[in-house]
Structure prediction request, 231 residues.
Amino acid sequence: MVTTQAAPPAYSSNTTAKTATTTDTTAADATKKTNISSDFETFLRMLTVQMQNQDPLNPVDSSDYAVQLATFSSVEQQVLTNDLLRGINDKVGGGNLGQLANWVGMEALVRAPVAYDGRPVNLRPEYADTADAAALVVRDASDALVARSTIPLGEKSIVWDGKDDTGAAYPNGVYKFSIESYQNGKVIDTATAQVYSAIQEARVSGNAILLRLSDGTEVDAELVTGLRSPD
Prediction:
């Protein structure tokens, strides 16, 4: 069964901040790559001039050139490594991995399955602009249909109580929620509903922060649109 909420629970959105951060980071990365390329071209020009102006009676040994090339390559790799580490630090709040620990135990608003444990599930539905009706579709972990319920079009927050029409509770487990939008009785759009799911782990993977949710799903932290303390 589905009920609606008069007012959705408060949550924080970080879309604007992420857009600005992404833009700044992209511009900075492009500048760094240009600088490295420019430095390498300068190094090659200097090496060429050195070769052209060497004493023909006492030429520079080829092994010296190899050492210079190896030294520049080593410095270049160190610069790129530092840039990568700096990017990871930016993603985790200035390098403070301890901040990620504050996310563990919180509930994240994401488009992901939910590990149902008998408590009501809060959902944030999204509808097609031209829809004249909507329904909540619930499926289990094997993608089998569990329930389909009509919901008021335009509701910003709804609650699935985990019970069927007779009042019997569905078994605990992983469930998927989607919103079907209808027009003139036909489905015109199906969108995964945003749900609050408990964060069990946060870790850095490459240049991204991954969150492991209570159902075992891993999502990029940038896909989280809100955080709240568990009830």
Summary: The longest helix spans residues 15-52. The two ends are 20 Å apart (CA to CA).
